[in-house]
Design brief:
Layout lengths: L14 E6 L12 E2 L5 E8 L4 H4 L4 H12 L2 E11 L3 E10 L4 H14 L9 H13 L5 E8 L12 H18 L2 E7 L6 H18 L3 E4 L5 H12 L2 E4 L5 E5 L2 E10 L4 E8 L8 E5 L8 E2 L6 E7 L5 E9 L6 E8 L9 E6 L2 E7 L2 E3 L4 E8 L9 H4 L3 E8 L22 E5 L1 E3 L2 E6 L6 E9 L4 E12 L2 E7 L10 E9 L9 H5 L3 E7 L5 E5 L1 E2 L6 E5 L5 E10 L6 E3 L3 E5 L5 E2 L7 E2 L10 E2 L3 E5 L4 E2 L7 E8 L3 E5 L2 E5 L4 E10 L5 E10 L2 H33 L5 E8 L15 E9 L5 H4 L20 E3 H15 L5 H10 L7 E3 L8 E3 L11 E2 L9 E7 L2 H11 L5 E9 L22 H10 L1
Parallel strand pairs: 1-19, 3-4, 3-6, 6-7, 7-8, 20-27, 38-46, 39-46
Antiparallel strand pairs: 1-2, 4-5, 9-18, 10-11, 11-17, 12-16, 12-18, 13-14, 13-17, 15-16, 19-21, 21-25, 22-23, 22-26, 24-25, 26-27, 28-29, 29-33, 30-31, 30-34, 32-33, 34-35, 34-36, 37-41, 40-44, 42-45, 43-44, 45-46, 47-48, 47-54, 49-50, 50-51, 52-53, 53-54
Helix pairs in contact: 2-3, 2-7, 4-5, 5-6, 12-13, 13-14
């Protein structure tokens, strides 16, 4: 039969195949190294004081230790026994619990406990744990557990010992166990007749072992429960799943009475089945097993080579515990039944468990790495044949944690919220959870200390828990400090900023990590080479994790050097950056650029500088002086003229005048380097009457300024609308598009064509213009630059008509009446932003009051038609003379730019105008003629 093994001693081989050195591509130098073989060491510490004769009268402690030996069939599990009372001694140590050693170990237990008996006097627990520490110190780095049995508080009053000494030794052992991963499980045999005060004192003393080591503490009132406690400890110590055997079924097997215990195995990755009945059964005829390993048939353990049955007899000759083991090679998953053939009418509660048969494997890239270099870790599982387990359903049930233990006892890796001053050495490890990728668990480990680590792997699910420890991993200091002075031009009394960060020596990659920098212990030394003064400034982490920063304000001139140093709070390493230098010069204080000696200043600087309204004058030194070095200067005042009083406070000169007067003061600014600047201020303090007059003058100036501004704006607008070029105007009487009373269609009666210069020269210059001299139909006169009204144009047309055509006839009277109509707002407006000409105050509908156009576009004109209705009186008068109503005037406007004004035709004797002449030119020539 295959040997039954514990989790920590199941022949676990951790194959640590190489971690990849991050700085070397393609794993060129990855190497495989093997984990250390780990043993499980159990140190049983038994209280053999006189009181134990009643606490364990049925010898349950030695029976439980025998049961522990029978259950552990593995030479990697070693047992030591310490007995104590008034003094302590080691009965035996480091006995392997292989099958061939079981009887020898049980004889040693019998000799130490049964033969000697519980008669060793007092209870010096500290002395016993001191011996346990001596044993465990030689087993460092392995799976170590202490199993303590006691029934009372510490009593040590002999051989120079005291209770206080024993208690201190218990505290010291608790600290040792905490720092070395030793688990202390304690069983207190406090029956109901025990003194309550003694029980309370004992539990307080033992609580420190439970709190600091994470072990179990069990109070047992009935000694018969001691074996149950031992089984619980084994379930926690070994990688087992406890079976539920609490509901047996009464049945018959081959005609014999039996009790049937049923259980199921959830997966294939198990090794052995072990079922324990701690309470005795008086008569056991046979034990049978059925399940996948027996093809579903019930097989007697007496006749089956793959099964083993251990039946014991207690020291008082009564039946003891029963242990069965079943080798489950082959198909393991499935339903099992154990048949206990006995004539007992009442079943005994059984406890059972089975072991997992999986091996843990760890692969890393390198054994030696540098600080802050990412190191991938891969963990995978193999079965007993060495095949990699890729059952995803099984792997997803596992919780895999990697405990990273600092071997140099440098203190705990702190949380992000901790400060450097909060770092304590309460523990030397921290745990990270590994994530499942395909068939392996992976983690990128970034060590933050130059130290030696040991990696402890914890694998567990709902059924089992296993722990394995790797070899030592060495992390070297491979970081350099890089620093720089980032202030462009360092100046006296102004902060000079220095920044620093860390780089990897091998690949010069920059280290990024705010928490790492915050606890890195970086500081910068500023040294004045002239005076030898040294100032140390602690650096602060940059919020984005890109290094450290610190600032220093130099107060003396000279040559400075700065060096960034690092004394890490996490590691025992000191680093220094390169030496940097900068120069500080002392520049004298100066007057502000706007202030001169004897210059006046006052309430309204720039307009009334030498006047001041009010009795209190306050002058700030910063208004008149400037220190390029940023020194704190002191202001001095010398009042050379004035009848008031003054004070100086915080470099502000305050003067209280007693009436109308002239105040003159000399202000001196002197910095702490001895530099000084001087200015003289003269201010005339006004009386109340002068203030009133000054206010009135100010109001008048404001009004004048507003009026001037309005005039300038109007002038600019007028200038921008200046009329330019020439508009040709054809005037005719027209009966179309009139009011309802004049719907009759009439032919147009042409009156004449006229030209209107939009850019109005002076009147006297018209006579000298050769182009305009022969133009008798040219309308000229003085028009406003921004607008020419239609009334004004029609009136000019009437005058031109009278002079060149028919005199003062009915048409002249009609034109004149239209030109003198009350409406004088409609008309032509001048150019603006490239506009030819525009029409103002016209509409698209006929009206007796205003002109209207026949389309909607009224600006940027080149030509248009304007209708001007006449009033009814003038229309009837003309209708009487002409025999028909006229109804209004039609005006056709056409624009000519100044450079394209129509020219009068010049008669030629030899050659006439070619047939290709422009129609406009022909028409202009006819009009001139």
């Amino acid at each position: 039969m295959k040997k039954w093994k514990s989790l920590f001693a199941c022949g676990l081989v951790l194959l640590l195949t190489g971690w990849t050195m991050l700085c070397i591509p393609f794993n060129a130098y990855a190497q495989t190294w093997e984990a250390e073989s780990t043993s499980t060491n159990i140190v049983a510490v038994v209280d053999c004081s006189t009181s134990m004769q009643s606490s364990d009268s049925d010898w349950k402690i030695p029976e439980s230790l025998d049961m522990l030996v029978d259950m552990c069939d593995d030479e990697q599990v070693r047992l030591s026994l310490i007995v104590y009372g008034t003094s302590a001694e080691t009965a035996f140590r480091d006995f392997p619990l292989s099958a061939e050693n079981h009887e020898m170990v049980k004889k040693q237990i019998h000799q130490a406990l049964m033969v000697r008996g519980y008669n060793l006097g007092q209870t010096d627990t500290g002395a016993a744990l001191g011996l346990a520490q001596q044993i465990l110190e030689q087993q460092a780095g392995q799976n170590n557990m202490v199993l303590l049995f006691t029934d009372g508080a510490i009593r040590a009053t002999r051989n120079g010992r005291t209770n206080e000494i024993s208690e201190q030794e218990v505290d010291a052992f608790a600290a040792f166990a905490q720092n070395n991963g030793v688990v202390v499980n304690t069983l207190g045999l406090f029956n109901k007749q025990a003194d309550a005060a003694d029980v309370e004192t004992a539990e307080e003393e033992l609580s420190i072992l439970r709190s600091k080591t994470g072990g179990m503490y069990q109070r047992v009132d009935d000694p018969a429960d001691i074996p149950d406690f031992v089984i619980q400890l084994l379930a926690g110590l070994l990688d087992v799943k406890t079976l539920d055997l609490s509901s047996p079924t009464e049945t018959t097997v081959d005609g014999k009475h039996a009790w049937q215990y049923d259980f199921s195995i959830s997966d294939q990755y198990i090794k052995d089945l072990t079922v324990v009945w701690p309470a005795p059964v008086s008569v056991i005829q046979d034990i049978l097993i059925s399940g996948p390993a027996t093809d579903g048939t019930a097989v007697s353990l007496n006749n089956w080579t793959d099964g083993e049955w251990v039946s014991t007899t207690r020291y008082n000759a009564k039946p003891g515990y029963q242990v069965i083991r079943i080798d489950t090679d082959g198909q393991k998953k499935g339903d099992y039944s154990v048949f206990f053939v006995t004539n007992e009418a009442t079943p005994v509660a059984a406890e059972g468990f089975y072991l997992y048969d999986v091996n843990l494997n760890v692969e890393i890239g390198a054994q030696d790495i540098g600080v802050m270099q990412s190191l991938p870790i891969e963990v995978y599982l193999t079965d007993s044949q060495g095949y990699r387990i890729d059952d995803v359903d099984f792997l997803q049930t596992l919780a895999v944690e990697l405990e990273i233990v600092n071997q140099q006892n440098m203190g705990v890796e702190v949380e992000e919220s901790a400060k450097a001053s909060d770092i304590v050495s309460e523990q030397d490890s921290y745990t990270r959870e590994l994530k499942l990728y395909n068939d392996s668990f992976r983690l990128d480990f970034v060590p933050e200390r130059a130290t030696d680590y040991r990696l402890v792997l914890h694998v567990s699910n709902a059924y089992f828990s296993r722990t394995s420890t790797t070899r030592q991993l060495t992390v070297h200091d491979q970081l350099d400090v890089v620093s720089s002075v980032v202030t462009a031009t360092p100046r006296k009394n102004r902060p000079v900023e220095v920044r620093a960060y860390l780089i990897q020596q091998d690949n010069h990659d920059k280290v990024v990590g705010e928490e790492f920098y915050r606890l890195s212990g970086m500081y910068v030394e500023f040294t004045n080479q002239s005076t030898g003064a040294v100032q140390t400034v602690e650096m602060q982490a940059v919020p984005d994790g890109n290094g450290m920063t610190a600032s220093y304000t130099p107060t003396d001139e000279g040559e400075y050097t700065t060096v960034v140093r690092m004394k890490s709070h996490r590691e025992n390493v000191t680093r220094s950056g390169e030496k940097l230098g900068f120069s500080i010069q002392d520049r004298p204080i100066t007057k502000q650029f706007c202030v001169k000696d004897h210059e006046s200043s006052g309430l309204m600087e720039g307009l009334f500088k030498h006047y001041w309204a009010g009795s209190i004058i306050e002058l700030a030194g910063d208004t008149f002086f400037y220190d390029p070095d940023g020194d704190s200067y002191r202001l001095e005042a010398d009042l050379t003229r004035g009848e008031g009083e003054y004070t100086l406070f915080d470099n502000i000169f305050s003067y209280t005048a007693s009436g109308k007067q002239t105040m003159e003061v000399t202000l001196t600014a002197r910095d702490y380097s001895g530099n000084a600047a001087v200015t003289t201020i003269q201010i005339r303090v006004l009386s109340i009457v002068e203030v009133i007059l000054l206010t009135v003058l100010l109001v008048l100036l404001v009004v004048f300024a507003i009026a001037a501004l309005v005039w300038v704006i109007r002038w600019c607008i007028t200038r921008s609308r200046k009329l330019k070029g020439v508009v040709r105007m054809d005037v005719s009487l027209n009966g179309e598009r009139l009011e309802e009373a004049f719907k009759k269609q009439l032919d147009e009666l042409q009156i004449g064509r006229f030209y209107i210069p939009l850019e109005n020269p002076k009147v006297e210059s018209l006579a000298d213009d050769e182009r305009l001299r022969p133009r008798t139909d040219l309308i000229h006169g003085t028009f406003l630059d921004e607008k020419i009204s239609f009334n004004r144009m029609l009136y000019a047309c009437a005058q031109s008509y009278r002079a060149s055509r028919g005199g003062e006839d009915g048409i002249y009277q009609y034109l004149k009446s239209c030109g003198t109509a009350p409406d004088k707002t409609s008309g032509i407006v001048g150019q603006k932003k490239g506009m030819r000409f525009g029409i103002r105050n016209v509409s698209n509908e006929p009206s007796m009051e205003k002109a209207f156009v026949e389309d909607r576009k009224r600006n940027d004109r080149e030509s248009c038609v304007v209708y001007i209705p006449a009033d009814s009186v003038a229309n009837e008068r003309l209708a009487t003379k002409l025999g028909t109503p006229i109804g209004g005037i039609k005006v056709v406007l056409r624009y000519y730019p100044a450079k394209e004004q129509p020219q009068p035709k010049v008669r030629k004797t030899k050659k006439t105008k070619s047939a290709s002449a422009e129609p406009e030119e022909k028409e202009a020539a006819l009009n001139v003629e």
